[in-house]
Amino acid sequence: MPGLTAKVFRTYNASITLDAILHEETEDGTLLEKIAVYQRANKEVAIICNHQRAVSKSHDTQMTKLNEKIDELKAQINELNKDLGKVKRGKPLGNGADGKPKRALAPEAIEKKISQIETKVEKMEMDKKTKEDLKTVALGTSKINYLDPRITVAWCKTHEVPIEKIFSKTILAKFGWAMDVEPDFRF
C-alpha cells in the first residue's frame, strides 16, 4: 500500500481495536462502570502500541492511603449501622469518639448517610482497582496520538458519558474538529 507508514498502521490498529472493544464490552451501567470500560479499552490499545511507563515511586504510598480511607469509611458505615439499630429500638445513641453526645437523627437520615458512604466506598474501590491495573501503562500517549477521537466522541454520545470525563480541556481543544461526529459513528 503506497504511503503506508508505521504511524498510519499503528493509528489504524489502535483505532480499530478501541472501536471493537468499546462496542463489545459496553453495557448499561453506572457512569463509573462505563468510564472503567473505556479505560480498559484504552489500556488494551496502549499495550498493543507498547506504551509503558515505570511504576511511580509514590504508587505504594497512594495505595496505602486509599486503603486507609476505605477502611475509615467502612468503620463509619459500621458505626452508623449500630446507631440505626439503636434509633429504631428507641435507645439513646451515647457519645461519639470525641466524648460528646451524638446528635439524634431520624432513621431515614442515617440510612441516607450510609447509602452516601457506601457509594463513596464503591467509587474508591473502583479507583483503587483502576490505579493498580494501569500502574505500568501510559494511557495518554495512545489517547492523544494514536486513537481517532471520533470513536471516543461517538461512544460518549451513545452511552451518555460526558466527554470531559475522558478528555481534558487541552485535548478537547485539540480535537474540536471531532466533536460534531454522529453517535452511530464506527471506525
Describe this structure in words.
The structure is a single chain. The protein has 187 residues and is mostly helical. The protein folds into two domains: 6-53 and 136-178, Topoisomerase I, Chain A, domain 4, CATH 1.10.132; 58-134. 64% of the residues lie in helices and 0% in strands. It has seven helices and no strands. The chain has helices spanning 6-25, 31-48, 59-89, 107-133, 139-145, 149-158, 169-174. α1 (6-25) packs antiparallel against α2 (31-48), α2 (31-48) crosses α5 (139-145) and α3 (59-89) runs antiparallel to α4. It starts with 5 loop residues before the first helix and ends in a 13-residue tail after the last helix. InterPro entries: DNA_brk_join_enz, TopoI, TopoI_C_dom, TopoI_cat_a/b-sub_euk, TopoI_cat_euk, TopoI_euk, TopoIB_AS, Topoisomerase_IB. This is DNA topoisomerase.
Topology:
Elements: H1 6-25, H2 31-48, H3 59-89, H4 107-133, H5 139-145, H6 149-158, H7 169-174
Helix pairs in contact: 1-2, 2-5, 3-4
EC number: 5.6.2.1
GO biological process, one term: DNA replication
Domain DNA topoisomerase I eukaryotic-type: 1-160
Helix content: 55-70%
The domain count comes to 2
The shape is elongated
| Elements, N to C (H/E) | HHHHHHH
CATH class of the largest domain: Mainly Alpha
**Main beta-sheet strand count, sense and barrel state:** none
Oligomer: single chain
Task: State the CATH architecture of the largest domain.
Answer: Orthogonal Bundle
Strand content: under 5%
Mean pLDDT: 87
**Class from secondary-structure proportions:** mainly alpha
Number of DSSP strands?
0
Count of separate DSSP helical elements: 7
CATH fold-level label of the largest domain: Topoisomerase I, Chain A, domain 4
Low-confidence stretches: none
- Specify Rg, calculated over alpha carbons: 23 Å
How far do the termini sit from each other? Answer: 19 Å
Domain DNA topoisomerase I eukaryotic-type: 1-160
GO molecular function: DNA binding; DNA topoisomerase type I (single strand cut, ATP-independent) activity
Active site: 146
Catalytic activity: ATP-independent breakage of single-stranded DNA, followed by passage and rejoining
